[in-house]
C-alpha cells in the first residue's frame, strides 16, 4: 500500500470540499455503491471530490471516537472493568490507525484497499485494488478483517515513522513483530472468561493511581502505551495536515473538532445511575 508523502497529504486534506449526497454518509456504503466498479479515482473529477469528502469525513469521525474511547478507557480502570478497558483501548487504536491511513489517502475495506497511484498535487490519483495474492493485489497472509487490516497498516505506515519522532515511532510498529498482537489480545479477553478474570486479578494486585500508567500490568499496560502514543501521532498529523471537515456537523454544525472533544469527551461526568438499576438482584444473599 502506497501513502501520500506529508506535502501531498497536506494538499489532499486541505482541499476538502463539502460535497453533498452519498459523500455525506458512510464510507463503507459509499465504497459498496461506487468503488467496485471504479478502479481509478483522478483528482479534478467529481468522483475524486466525492470520495475525498466522504473519506476525510470518516477520518474526522475516527478522530472524535478515538478521543472518546481514550476517555472511556480511563473511566474503566477498576478491577472488574479492566479487561473491557483493554478492549476499549484496542478500538481506540483501530480508529486512530484508520484515521492515519485516511489522511494519507488510503483505506482498508474487507476485500479492497484504496491507495495512492499518483501523489503530485493537482494531479493526484487513487487506485482501488483487491486484497489477495494475485498480480496487482494488496498481499497479506492473514485471514479475518482485523488481522488483515493491521498487517496492511503496519507495512504501509513504516515510511511515516521518521515523521512520528523517536519517542512515538514504536507505535507504528507491530508489538513483538506480530501484526496480529492487538487483535489476538482483544479476542482473548472478549471470548475467554479465564483470560478476562486473570486480567482483572493482575490489575487488582498491581494498579495504583499514583503509579499510573506504569502500574498497569502486562498486556494492559502495553496496550495503553500503544494507544496513547498512536493517539498523539494521529492528532499531530491532523494538525500538521490542516484537516478540517464537517464530519461532526451532526453533533454541532459550527463547532470545531477540538471544541467538541473538550465539550463532549472531557467535560461531562458520567451519570450516577447505580441507584436506578436492579443492583440488588446481582448481590442478593444466597440462603
Summarize this structure briefly:
Helix content is 52%, strand content 6%. The chain has 287 residues and is α+β, with helices and mostly antiparallel strands.
Can you characterise this structure?
- The protein has one domain.
- 52% of the residues lie in helices and 6% in strands.
- The protein contains 11 helices and 4 strands.
- The chain has a 4-stranded antiparallel β-sheet, sandwiched between helices.
- β2 and β3 form a beta hairpin.
Name some characteristics of this structure:
11 helices, alpha+beta, 4-stranded antiparallel beta sheet, globular, 287 residues
Contiguous uncertain segments of 5+ residues: none
Give the fraction of residues assigned to helices: 40-55%
Summing up helix and strand content along with how strands pair, one would put the structural category as alpha+beta
N→C terminal distance: 62 Å
> What is the number of domains?
1
Strand order of the largest sheet: 1-4-3-2
Supply the number of helical segments: 11
Output mean pLDDT: 94
Report the major sheet: 4 strands, antiparallel
- The number of strands is 4
The amount of beta strand, in percent, is: 5-15%
What sequence of helices (H) and strands (E) makes up the elements? HHEHHEEEHHHHHHH
Instruction: From the alpha carbons, calculate the radius of gyration and give it in angstroms.
Output: 21 Å
| Gross geometry | globular
